[in-house]
Amino acid sequence: MYETGPPNGLTTSTTDQAVSGVEDVPDISANWYLHIIEFANSTPDFVHPLAMLFTDGSLFVMAAVLAWAGWRARRLPARDMALALLAPFGMIAAYLVNDTIKGFFEVGRPCRLLSDVNTIAACDPPGDWSFPSNHSAVAGATALAIVFAWRKLGIPALLVGISTAASRVFVGAHFPHDVVVGFLVGASVVLVVMLLGAPPATRAVEKLRKHPRTGKLLTAGARPEHGQADSSPEPPTRPVEPPTEPIDPPTQPMTFRGTTERHRGPRSHSTR
């Protein structure tokens, strides 16, 4: 697991010396790396496996949150569902773009460019380049995808993504500038994918939701679109038919004289 030195009592002999002249690596980044490695080696032994678990496991946790956001979007408008579906494509595109940049620069890993350095992570084989960090690119891409797909979890996702990128320096796998550039590359690629892909993806989701087969998969009592009325049919009401024949009002006033006399008759008779 370690490049040099025993697992217990790790030491670094070059942290107190200024590092300069490392090919393709800024001096300030190389010096920060050595100080961070010195701090990592000074932590208790149980921290080291936890750091390795976090640097890899955090990506799976964020991916699981993103999958949950996609399932949750089935009850949301089509645009929210479209952003959740675009997230995996943005992550894949971010990795491919960053890996292409890495192959172009071909910068070696810190454990191979610096001597007498003990790292928590095992030193990667030759040809596995360092700049920019693929881990950090995927972390930045996933964190920003969660911002689009589930805004309430955006800030926690960004904090986890930044911590994941920083952990790559802590375990000794990358220089600081590797993770900064990698994180920005991943986030930028996802931003472009989301902004450009949202309109056509939204239209596609709207069409698929109307299909009898795919509609069950992409919707689960989805809310009506913002600004649109509910399209569910109203229950039929029985129309009120107008009268077929007109009703003429009476031309003579109605009198009740006879009825009045019948009521008055017994009274006059009784008085007599």
From TrEMBL:
Ranges that cross the membrane: 50-69, 157-175, 181-201
Pfam families referenced in this protein's UniProt entry, alphabetically: PAP2
Cellular compartments annotated: Cell membrane
Chief location of this protein within or outside the cell: membrane
Entry-linked SUPFAM superfamilies: Acid phosphatase/Vanadium-dependent haloperoxidase
InterPro entries associated with the record: PAP2/HPO, PAP2/HPO_sf
Biased segments, Pro residues type: 233-252
Name of the featured protein: Undecaprenyl-diphosphatase
Domain of life assignment: Bacteria
Gene3D superfamilies reported for this sequence: Phosphatidic acid phosphatase type 2/haloperoxidase (1.20.144.10)
A GO MF label: hydrolase activity
Any one cellular-component term (Gene Ontology): plasma membrane
UniProt-annotated stretches for the region Disordered: 207-272
Domain Phosphatidic acid phosphatase type 2/haloperoxidase: 84-194
Keywords per UniProt: Cell membrane, Hydrolase, Membrane, Transmembrane, Transmembrane helix
Membrane-topology descriptor: Multi-pass membrane protein
